[in-house]
Here is the input.
Amino acid sequence: MKPESKLRGLVLAGGRSSRMGSDKATLVHPDGRTLARRSCDLLREAGCETIVVSLRHDQEIPAGLDGVEIVRDPEGASGGPIAGIVAGLRLNPAADWLVVACDLPRLDAATLAHLISSKQSDEKFLAYRSEFDGLPEPLCTLYSQAALPILEQAQADDFRCPRKILIRNDCRLLEPVTPRALDNANTPEDWATAKIP
Here is the structure.
């Protein structure tokens, strides 16, 4: 990344968590922090100048997020994670953004540091390759300031899949540095597995 670029952090915590049965952002990690708070802390440790948490328009703010800026999806929006990403990036279109989902209980500082240090100045996006299917992991990704118009156009076209946006825009993929760091927890079974060392 260019040294003059300001890096912002965005935590996506606005999902409905229907498969989990409770708000994933409020789940308590084995280290005692909620998943949302832990994600914010990791982004701060990674060097993000500002941290923002994306929520649905009607969602309660998870506990432990004092002092963190909140951005909300527009009322009636059902665009999935792309709605949160676009809402967040619009807060500062001149910045590069490190975007993570809150439901990555194994995410670690090394994964974020490698992503940041690997970014080249002309890249609109930079992501990891999924350990499961080899495709981009869109919810732990660097989105440069040049990415916002692409995302806005996709949203205007009702194209909601961030992974396919990365694929269509030739996103360079990094190999994971920490096994299972990007495992997400969508169900109680995932959550139980994620907590096993």
Notes: The mean pLDDT is 86. The first helix runs from residue 35 to 45.
